[in-house]
Hints:
elongated
Amino acid sequence: MILTFADLLVWMIVGMIAGSLAGAAVKRTKEGFGRYMNMGIGLVLVVRPFYADSVRRQLSEAGYENWTIGRIEEGTKGALLQ
Length: 82
């Protein structure tokens, strides 16, 4: 499927309208939006543990807030959320 600029523009407008309607329907706080909207994580970087501190430092120096949100381990299929 190929999107034209007009298609993209229409979807951007639809997204803005949907966001405005959703915003009017929920409590205007981070917690209110978080309950009804997908606030997402944003960008995720997966790096080797050896490089983790260096990557986090470089991101901080560039002005980006960052957190370690998990680790990948060998094991059975699935995820453990804590």
